[in-house]
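Morning!

This is the sequence you dropped in the shared folder:
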Amino acid sequence: MLIAQISDTHVMLPGMLMSGKVDTAQHLQAAVAHLLSLEPRPDLVLATGDLVDSGSPEEYARLRAILAPLPMPIYVIPGNHDTRDPLRAAFPEHDRLLGGAFIQYVIEDYPLRMIALDTLAPGASHGELCETRLDWLEARLAESDRPTLLFMHHPPFPCGIADFDLIGLNHGRERLAEIVRGNPQVERILCGHVHRPVQCRWAGTLASIGPSTAHQATLDLRPDVPITFTMDPPAVALHQWRDGHLITHLSYIGDFDGPHAFS
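The structure's back. Tokens below.
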């Protein structure tokens, strides 16, 4: 199976630009066209949060219109820019999955089991996993020892970009690590939030952050430097489950010279 991960799409209303510069909706349209051009096409899409910028129903309606050409299932989780009820309303076909106090659910229909986690702390930029959410995860993992992927917005590990580390998964990280260590079937944790690809061995598995489909966080590892962004090439992450291994590639969105034969 082939999983496409899109993240931090930050769709805004028509005529609005992120920081007065970035047309995030146009970038997402390019990402959709890119996914449609892939051979083989992904079997499903995971959208790992910050789907829109202010959480309004109008933004979610625009998000759905942009994603509409994709024929494969799209599974969503909220980021700190999202709001739960408008997000649920925008994806009524997943009402069975997105109901409840938190947007957490299990996808059982593929060779790799997938569990969505809701790290949203309303009104805050950081993420949290309360005891209720963690109890739910522990119970779901106890149901099966099938290879499992967790996907969530806020990364549980520090990425080295100072301001993002202040607004990571600030609550529930320690217990999440205990749960993951106790469940070796967890093959990977997929995250968003940081707007650039980052990997870390964490709690006995691999945790990875996917890039944004639009602007990327500046790679600046100096302490006490404010967050900035650059227009590095946007990308989607492609995760291929093959022969018992999850193999990840970045697929950059845009027109690039090639392909050329190696000589």
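Headline: Helices lie at 24-37, 57-67, 84-90, 95-98, 131-142, 162-166, 173-181.

More detail when I'm at my desk.
O.
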